[in-house]
Amino acid sequence: MFNYVKNSLSKLIKSRLIVLVVLFALLAGILIQRLYTMQIINGEKYLTDFTMQIKKETTLKSTRGNIYDRDGNAVAYNKLAYNVTYEDVGSYDTTRERNLAMNGSLYQIMKVIEDGGDQVYTNYAIDIGSDGQYEFTREGFNLLRFRADIFGYADTEDLKTDERNCTAEEMMQTLSTKKWYGIDLSVYTEEELQEYGLPSSFTKEEQLKLTALRSAVAQNSYQKYVTTTIAKDISKDTVAVIMENKDRYPGVDVEEDSIRVYEDGLYMAPLIGYTGQVSAEELEELNGENGNGQYSSSDIVGKSGLEKYFEKELRGQNGTKTVYVDNLGKVLKEDSEVAPQAGNDIHLTIDRNLQIAVYKILEQYIAGIVYNKIFDAEKFDKDSISSEDDILIPIYDVYYSLFENNVLDADHLASDDASDNEKRIYSEFQSREEEIFSEIRGQMTSSSATAYQDLSEEMQVYESFIVDDVLIEGTEVLDKDKIDTNDEMWTKWSNDGSVSLNEFLSYAISKNWIDITKVNSDTTYLDTSEITGALADYVTDYLSKSDAFSRQVYKYMIQNYQISGKDICLLLFDQGILKMNEEDYSALENGAVSAYDFIMAKIYSLEITPAMLALEPCTGSAVITDPDNGDVLACVTYPGYDNNRLANNMDDDYFYKLNSDKSSPFYNKATQEVTAPGSTFKIVAATAGVMEGVVGAYDTINCTGKFQLIPPDVNCWIYSERYKSGSHGPLTLSQAITESCNFYFNTVGYMLGKTSDFTNLTPETDADGNVVQSSTYNDAQAISTLTKYAAMYGFDANTGIEIDETAPHVSTADGARTAMGQAGNTFTTSQLSRYAATIANNGTCYDLTLLDRITDSDNNTLEEPEPVFTIYEDIRQKLIAQGMPAEQIAFIHEANTEVRKKELFSKVRTGQVRVLLGSTAKMGAGTNVQDRLVALHDLDCPWRPGDLAQRKGRIERQGNQNETVHVYRYVTEGTFDAYLWQTVENKQKFISQIMTSKSPVRSCDDVDETALSFAEIKALCAGDPRIKERMDLDVDVARLKLMKADHQSKQYQMEDNLLKYFPEQKKMNREDMVIIAGDFGGLWGGTPAEKYWLDWLEDKPFTTAFLDGNHENFAMLNALPERLWHGGRIHEVRPHVLHLMRGQVFDIEGYTFFTMGGASSHDIQDGILDPEEPGFEERYWRMRRARAMFRVKGVSWWTEELHSDEEYEEARKNLDAHDWAVDYILTHCAPTSIALQFSRHNVADHLTDFLQEVKDRAQYHYWLFGHYHGNKAIDTKHILLWEQIVQIL
Predict the structure, then answer these.
(1) What is the pairing mode between strands 1137-1140 and 1128-1134?
(2) Euclidean distance between CA atoms 910 and 1211, whole angstroms
(3) Section 1216-1245 average pLDDT
(4) Which residue from 832, 898, 1000, 1131 has the fewest beta carbons nearer than 10 Å?
(5) The pTM is what?
(6) pLDDT tens-digit series, residues 115-151
(7) Mutual orientation of helices 1027-1061 and 1009-1022 as an angle, nearest 10°?
(8) Measured between alpha carbons, how far is 1218 from 1224 in angstroms, rounded to an integer?
(9) Cα dihedral angle (597, 598, 600, 603), rounded to 10 degrees?
(10) Is the pLDDT of residue 767 over 60?
C-alpha cells in the first residue's frame, strides 16, 4: 500500500501537469498578494495620485486690438481685470447632493464677491420688474434661443409648447425644483443647509442670481474642464480674499482678463460703438460663411459702430494651454502651450479733439435754439402759426418732458430712501390714480357712461390708452384681426367719438371681438355687465403696473397744478440729476427764484441738456471731411452716450433708458438720418444747367417771384403771398446762387426737361385758363439729367464710411422742385459732407473713410485704404517724370500730427523738400517755410479773398532769402473759373469798403488794386476783356435790385408783424403813445432805408416815443432839435417820433413818468477800437477773425453811452421837484439788485447804482425796463420787456 502511494506520488511529481499547477498556484498567490497591496494597503494612495494627475486643456484668451485717432490717442483700449471663474469639480452620488454642493459653493462665493463691493456677472434673460415679478429681458429669436439653451435643445424648433410659451415666473419655478437646480430650499433639512452653508431661504434676487449662475454652468457642462465666469473686474481686495480661502471653494479660481475702456465715450460712442457678449443671432452670423465656427457663446464681440465693422480685425486669435491639475483644480505642471495672438489695431482719420469740440458746439447751438423757444405758459397753439420755425415750447412741456423722457425716476418716488418731497408727490399721485381708476371703472361698466367726445381731454387720453395700448397692443384681449373696421360702432368709436367706452366694449363683447378667457378663465355664466366688470378690474390692474400710463397721469397732474414747477425742480436735486446746491434749493423752496427762471438758467448752463428734455430740436449731427482725400476728421451725432456702461458688465437699466430715450441716442444722425438738402442742392442744378447748355455763363433768368410753368405754383422765398409781390428780377447764375433764388432753379429744372421749343417759357393753360404741364416738357428727362449730375457729386451711392449708412435718394419726380433741393431729395449728413468736399476741391468726389490704417500689435502696417486719384498725386507723378526726385516732393496732409508737421517744415526750410503741395486750410497761418521759396502756384480760386492773402503770405514773408519771388495763378478759359473770380472780386470790394469807410452802407465800389486784379483774372477766364464792363454793370444792376427786393421784403415783414403782434394800433390816435424801453435802432447810419422807416413810423396813427439804450448812434441823436413836451425835454426825430431824454419827468394824461435811458454795453470786453489810432485796420480784422467782443468808436460805440455828471444831476433835480414820487419809471437797464439776478456776468456800474438809489428812495407804482432780452414780471412792481407790448394806461 505504501509502495503504491509512493509510486503514485513519484509519478505525480514527475508529471508535467503538476509542474504547471504549481506554477499557476505560485503566480496566483503573487497576483493576490499584489492586488491586496494595491487595493487594501495602498488603494487610497493610488486613488489620490490618480485624481491628482488630471490632464486639462484651457483657452488662453486673446487681447482685443486698440482703436486710435489720427494723432495716436487711444479711444478704445484694454485694461487688466480679474474675473472669478467656477468649474464643477465635484463627484456626486445623487442629484440632491449635487444641487446642495453647487448651490452652497456658489452662494458662499457670491456673498464674498458682493461683500467686497463687486457684482456677480449674470448675462441672463430674466430680471425683476418694477412690480416685483420676474420678466424676460429679451424678445424674438434671442428669447427663443434663451429658452432652448435653458431647456437643453440645440434647435429652437425642438421646444415643447409649454416651454415655448411659459412666463418668466413659470420658468423660474421650474428651474428651482429639485429636478433642475434645487434652489427651493424648503425640500432640505436644517442639517443639510448648515452643512453646505446655505440659508433657510433665498430672497427673490438671490434666487435669480443663483439660477443664472447654475444655468451658465450648465451651458458648459458638455465641455470637459471649461470654466464659467461668475464675476468680472473684481477689486484686488476681493481677489485677495478668494485666493486666501481658495480651498474652501472647490472649483473657484481668479483669472486675469481684460476689459474694454473707451476714452471720451459721450462724444465718440455712436462712432466707436461698444462690445458685449455675443447674442444667438450674432453667433450664427459670425460662425456662418467663412466663420469656421471660431466663435463661442461666451465670446465678446463688437455690438455696434466700428467695433462691429472691424470685428474680425480687432478680435485676435485665442491660444490653448495644456496642464495637469489635482482634484481641486490646482495646477501641478504645465504640458504645452499655444500662445494667443493679439488683435490688430485700428488707426482712424478722426481727430479726437475736433470731435469733442464739434460735439460741444452742436450741443450749445441746439440748447440755444431750445432756450429761445421756451416761454412761460402752459400750452402753445400751433394752429396760430404758419411755419414750423415759429413753434414755441411752453414751460409746462419742459416740466413734463423730465418725466416722459425718464430723466426723473417715477419709481424712486415710492422707494424707501425717497425724500420728503418725493413721498409727498407720490402720495398725491396715488390719490389721483385712485380717482382716475374709479372714473375708468364707471366709464367701462355704467350704461349711462359719457360719450368719448364729451369727456375731458384727460379722460379721452386715458380711454384711448386703454383701447389702443392695453386691450389691442398690450394684451390682445381686443383682437384687431376680428374687428370689422367698416362696422358702424367701430366708426363711431374710432372716428366720431359719439359712443361711450361702455357702449363700445359691450358691443365688442357681443361681436366676439374680445377674448374674455384672457381676463377670466371661467366665462360660462357671465353676462355682458359681469364681463365688463371683470374687464374693468383687469384693465385697472394692468394700468397700475404701467409706467407709460403713470407718465400720462403725471402729465395731467402737472397741467392741473397738482404738481408744481417748483416740485419738479426740487426733484432734480432730490434724485441727483442736479448736483445739490443748498442756495438754489432754498431759493426754490421759499419762492425767491421761480421754477421758470430756474429751469431756464439750468438750460443756459447746460446742466439740463436738450437731450434730457427730448423736445424738438433735441438732435443734430456734423461731419467734417478733408476735401483733399475724403478722410473724415469728425463724425458727430448728438446726443451721445457712455459706451463704458454698455461694454463688459452691461448696465441693463442704462441700456433700457437709452433704448426708450426719445432723443434716440443709438440712432446715428450723421449717417442714418436723412433730410432734404434744400438750397445746397442748387449747385447740382447749376452744374446740370451749364453742362447741358440750358443756361449760359452770363444769361439771365427773370425771377418774378412765383414760378408758374408747372402746377402747382412755387413761390420764391422773397415772394410775399400776403401782398402778392416780391421778386429778384433778372439774375445771372452766380447771382442766383448768391441769392439762393428758387425761381431761377425751378426754371433750370424745367428747362432740363424741355424736349422742344426750348426758348418758350410761357405757361400753357387749358380751356378754363388753368395752368397745365407743357406738352414740350418731359419730367422724366429732367429727373434723369439731374440724377446724372447728382451722381457726379456722390449722390448715387453711399459714401463708403465704415459704419451703417442710409442710402441717398434723389427725387424721382418733379424736376422743377427737385432742382431747388425739395421734392423727394433726401441725404444723410455724411453724404452732404462729401458733396461739400467735392465742391471745395473743385470736383473730385472721394469716398469717405474713417480708416487711416490697420497695424498689428507691433505697429507694423497691415492694411491702408486703396489709393484714389488726387490732383496732388497727379502733379507728383508729372514732376517725377520730369526728373525731380520723389523724396523732394511732399504732401502737407501726410503730416497729420504736429510732430510730423514740424519735421516736414524743417525739411522745406533746409531745401530737402523742394515742392510742398496742399490746401489753403492746411498751408495757411502757421506754415512758416518761406526761407527758400521762389514760387507760389495758385491752382484754383478759393471762396474767400482772405485765402488768397493767406497763400501769398506764405512766400511774401519776412525771412525769405530770395530778392524776387513769383506768384502764378492758373485759370481755364470758358469755365466756372470766371464765376469764382467774379465772386472773389465782389467780396473784396465789399471788404475794402468796410476797411476804409465808417459808413455801414453795404456798397461795393472798386476801391483798391486787389479787387481790380481779381477782375482782370475774371476777364481773362472769360476769354474777352470787354466782358469786364458787362460784369460790372451786371453787379451794379443786381445790387440795386437786391436792395429793392430786400426793402420790399422788410416792409412786408414789418407790416405783418405789426398786425400780428400789435392789433391794437388799428384803434389808436395821435394822443395814444407807444413807448420803447431803449435800443430804438432807428437812428444809426442815416441811410435812405432809415429815413424810409422813420417816415413809415411817422405815418402810423399813434405817437412813438423811445428811451435811448446802449445801441444808439448818439452823435445823430444829440444833433436832433430839442424841445419841451409834457413837462420834459425831448429830441424830435419826427413830429410824432420822439426821444425821451435822460432824467426827465413827463406828465401824460395825469400820470407822471420818470425816464432814464442808457446802459453800459456788455459786448465790449475785448476793447473799443479808435479808427484814428495807428494800426486800426490790422487790429480790426485780427479781432474779427478771433470773434472778439469789441466795438468801434464813432461807428458802433459812442462815449455818450455813458452818463455824464450833468445828466445825473438833472435827474435828481427833477425827482426832487416831485418829492421823489412818480407813477411810472421807464429805463433801459435795471437797478443793481435786479440786474444781478439775470446773469453772473452782470456787474454793478454807476448807472445801475444810481437806479438802485431811485429804487430805494422813490415812491412809484411800476418800473418798466428792457436791455436783458426777456419778457417777465420780476415782482409786482418791476417788469422786464423785450418782445412784448403791454398796455399801462
Answers:
(1) antiparallel
(2) 71
(3) 87
(4) 898
(5) 0.65
(6) 888 888 777 888 887 778 888 887 777 788 888 888 8
(7) 110
(8) 12
(9) 170
(10) yes
